[in-house]
């Protein structure tokens, strides 16, 4: 209410020298600092001081006026104040007395109060001490619990307890010294736990490296069992197919279901790994343990990948590969169950490193191997290794490629071994017909290779058409097929029948046929041996169908695929060609022997006066030899082959007889000598007719019989014995009776033909007249042949 009069007074005064803003600020009790600062900044503090003094004077005037206005009220108030002072003195005296009495009464109570306050202080201290002790006891109990867990090897609960101490109670421990002790020991305890689990993990590393070989052996053993079951199933399938083809018996199909918990077999302890990984994760150093694990396992792998120099690779390859298999089976289990300890990329990288090393080792070892069986043994184990690790998701293609690249090397070694075996067999063979006294021998040597000539079981003892080398060679070929299939199977190649067939052809052509040809061309054979070789080749040619069938069965190829046209072995054609070579060699040997007998024709009396009463000696030798040849051929050669031999030998004899007339050793011959040759020739013709019929060759319906092979010699003898030899120049008669004779040969032989010397009075007999007529005709023939030539 006083503010309005103030403003009115100021307005009434109307002093132009006072700043209205300054007055307003003072009136409202505002801060004058900005105004003062502004005045000093303008350099006019005196003006501000003057205005403030003026305002102060005006306020004093206002106060005086206000006091004058309320003077009476002020006097009354002073009087009241004096009354109050009196009352205050009285009250003060009362209070003093009351205070004195209160002090007298409360002095005892004050003592009690002091005691009570002291007790309250003690209680407070005890309460704080109890709280402190409670916290310390709690922390101590946690420490004891942690120590107990550590002593029991329960590191995860120990770390959980340390976590409770660190996060829950450590900062609440009121005792600084105790807190410092706890803070100091927590890292030491963590380090101790870390070292402890690392020590356990290191023990596990030693344990698992020792177990890896056993793990690998068990896993590879399972793969081998699975392969065996698969082979048995294929064998049953082949048997069912054979029964179906032959129509024998009813096929019974069964389904064998075997459940094998493979993981239950491969038991190994990964607890230390899980524990160490979990503890390091709880400690916040998971990456450190991951690096430690990978580093140590990689070191173990590098040791496992080192080849033993103390042992041959053939002896050490199984432990080498089983160790690696066990290693990666463990890594696969860790990858799947250790909660991120390993990543797939890490395992793949390690596997790629191992595969590169294994492929390098295999390539190096294969390059130095000189035995096919060794290479097959290693290859078989590597394929089992591949099958085992494929089940765990590892890519084994590079390993299979190494095996595939060594295919030619393996088969080359196998062919060399077969070449040596076949060479030994042929060298030790006497090339005599094989005799089998028991049925099991027949089954083992004949039926097992499908080389029987009849489905009827023969009587025993049985004399085969082949020698002992044939079943021995068949066994080698069968073993070669099995070894070839064993190498090519289980290596990732699905259809390897064509490859087996190619190498089988190579064996039969390059090795077997080559060995037979070398034997034929060796020049050390006699006719019986050459004949037996020809018979053996014929049997081996028949066996080619069995070899191809066996290869198809082992490769899982349906038999109908093998029985298709143009699906046979090239070796069959080659062996057929080799039969011709063998027959030619046999003919050469027989003809050479016949030449020895025919050379005895030099003992014939070519100028005899009288015809001999008996055949010449040489012809008996020839017939005996021919009889032995035909008899032997009848036992072991086919009719077709025997026909070729008979035609060749009789043709050669005919040529030899003609050559004897042409020989320079025969300067002249008489009709008596020709008559003797005629007798010899009749014996040969009789032999030829008899053998041609008795051996069944006539059933072949051949255009040329054995007798026909002697036609040149027969026509020559007939011409020389003819009463009109000049008819030879008659085309019709010549074509009919002398078509096999050559002009030049006839001319040469006729020049040597001289009739018997004239006897005393011989010209007066009838015989002389006939001789003269024949002589005139012969002379006419000689002249006409000269004119013709």
UniProtKB/TrEMBL annotation:
- In the UniProt record, the signal sequence range is none
Q: Name one GO cellular component term.
A: membrane
Q: Which GO terms describe its biological process?
A: acceptance of pollen; Golgi to plasma membrane transport; intracellular protein transport; pollen germination; pollen tube growth; vesicle tethering involved in exocytosis
Task: Tell me the ranges covered by the Exocyst complex component EXOC6/Sec15 N-terminal domain, including all copies.
Answer: 51-220
Q: Does the keyword Cytoplasm apply?
A: yes
Q: Which PANTHER family match?
A: EXOCYST COMPLEX COMPONENT 6, SEC15
So what does this one do?
Answer: Component of the exocyst complex involved in the docking of exocytic vesicles with fusion sites on the plasma membrane during regulated or polarized secretion. Involved in polarized cell growth and organ morphogenesis. During cytokinesis, involved in cell plate initiation, cell plate maturation and formation of new primary cell wall.
* Name under which the protein is recorded: Exocyst complex component
> Could you tell me which species this protein originates from?
Elaeis guineensis var. tenera (Oil palm)
Its ancestry begins with: Eukaryota, Viridiplantae, Streptophyta, Embryophyta, Tracheophyta
Protein encoded by which gene? LOC105053429
């Amino acid at each position: 209410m006083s503010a309005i009069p103030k403003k009115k007074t100021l307005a009434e005064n109307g002093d132009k020298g006072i700043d209205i803003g300054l007055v307003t600020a003072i009136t409202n009790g505002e801060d004058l600092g900005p105004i003062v600062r502004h005045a000093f900044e303008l350099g006019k503090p005196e003006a501000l001081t003057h205005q403030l003094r003026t305002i102060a004077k005006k306020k004093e005037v206002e106060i005086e006026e206000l006091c004058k206005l309320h003077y009476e009220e002020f006097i009354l108030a002073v009087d009241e104040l004096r009354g109050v002072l009196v009352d205050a003195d009285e009250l003060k005296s009362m209070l003093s007395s009351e205070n004195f009495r209160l002090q007298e009464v409360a002095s005892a109570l004050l003592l009690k109060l002091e005691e009570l306050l002291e007790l309250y202080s003690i209680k407070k201290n005890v309460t704080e001490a109890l709280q402190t002790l409670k916290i310390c006891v709690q922390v101590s109990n946690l420490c004891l619990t942690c120590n107990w867990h550590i002593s029991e090897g329960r590191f995860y609960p120990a770390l959980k307890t340390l976590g409770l101490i660190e996060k829950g109670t450590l900062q609440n421990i009121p005792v600084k010294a105790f807190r410092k002790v706890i803070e100091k020991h927590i890292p030491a305890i963590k380090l101790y736990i870390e070292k402890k689990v690392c020590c356990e993990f290191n023990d596990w590393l030693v344990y698992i490296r020792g177990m890896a070989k056993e793990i690998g052996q068990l896993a590879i053993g399972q793969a081998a069992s699975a392969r065996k079951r698969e082979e048995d199933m294929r064998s049953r399938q082949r048997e069912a197919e054979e029964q179906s083809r032959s129509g024998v018996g009813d096929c019974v199909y069964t389904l064998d279901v075997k459940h094998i918990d493979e993981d239950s077999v491969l038991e190994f302890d990964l607890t230390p790994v899980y524990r160490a990984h979990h503890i390091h994760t709880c400690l916040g150093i998971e990456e450190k343990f991951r690096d430690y694990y990978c580093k140590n396992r990689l070191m173990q792998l590098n040791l496992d990948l080192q080849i033993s120099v103390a042992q041959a690779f053939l002896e050490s390859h199984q432990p080498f590969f089983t160790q690696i298999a066990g290693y990666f089976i463990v890594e696969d289990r860790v990858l799947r169950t250790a909660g991120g300890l390993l990543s797939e990329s890490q395992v793949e990288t390690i596997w790629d490193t191992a595969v590169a090393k294994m492929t390098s080792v295999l390539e190096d070892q294969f390059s130095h191997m000189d035995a096919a069986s060794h290479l097959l043994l290693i290859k078989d184990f590597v394929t089992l290794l591949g099958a085992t690790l494929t089940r765990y998701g590892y890519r084994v293609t590079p390993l299979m490629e190494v095996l595939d690249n060594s295919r030619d090397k393996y088969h080359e070694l196998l062919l060399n071994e077969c070449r040596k075996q076949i060479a030994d067999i042929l060298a030790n063979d006497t090339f005599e017909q094989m005799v089998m006294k028991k049925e099991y021998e027949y089954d083992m040597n004949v039926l097992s290779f499908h080389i029987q000539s009849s489905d009827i079981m023969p009587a025993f003892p049985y004399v085969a058409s082949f020698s002992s080398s044939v079943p021995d060679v068949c066994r080698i070929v069968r073993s070669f097929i099995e070894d070839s299939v064993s190498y090519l199977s289980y290596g990732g190649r699905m259809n390897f029948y064509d490859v087996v067939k190619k190498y089988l052809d190579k064996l039969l052509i390059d090795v077997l046929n080559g060995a037979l040809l070398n034997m034929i061309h060796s020049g050390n054979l006699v006719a019986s041996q050459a004949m037996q070789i020809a018979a053996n080749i014929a049997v081996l040619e028949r066996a080619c169908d069995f070899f191809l069938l066996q290869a198809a069965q082992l490769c899982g190829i349906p038999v109908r695929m093998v029985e298709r046209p143009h699906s046979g072995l090239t070796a069959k054609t080659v062996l057929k060609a080799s039969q011709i070579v063998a027959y030619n060699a046999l003919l050469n040997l027989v003809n050479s022997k016949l030449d020895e007998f025919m050379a005895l024709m030099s003992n014939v009396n070519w100028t005899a006066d009288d015809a001999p009463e008996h055949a010449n000696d040489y012809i008996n030798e020839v017939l005996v030899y021919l009889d032995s040849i035909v008899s032997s051929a009848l036992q072991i050669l086919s009719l077709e082959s025997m026909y070729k031999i008979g035609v060749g030998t009789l043709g050669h004899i005919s040529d030899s007889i003609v050559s004897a007339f042409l020989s320079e050793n025969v300067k002249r011959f008489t009709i008596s000598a020709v008559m003797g040759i005629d007798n010899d020739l009749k014996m040969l013709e009789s032999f030829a007719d008899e053998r041609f019929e008795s051996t069944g060759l006539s059933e072949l319906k051949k255009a040329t019989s054995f007798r026909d092979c002697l036609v040149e010699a027969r026509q020559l003898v007939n011409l020389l014995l003819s009463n009109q030899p000049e008819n030879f120049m008659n085309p019709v008669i010549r074509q009919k009776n002398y078509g096999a004779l050559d002009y030049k040969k006839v001319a040469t032989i006729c020049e040597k033909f001289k009739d018997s010397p004239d006897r005393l009075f011989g010209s007066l007999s009838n015989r002389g007249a006939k001789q003269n007529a024949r002589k005139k005709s012969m002379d006419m023939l000689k002249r006409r042949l000269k004119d013709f030539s």
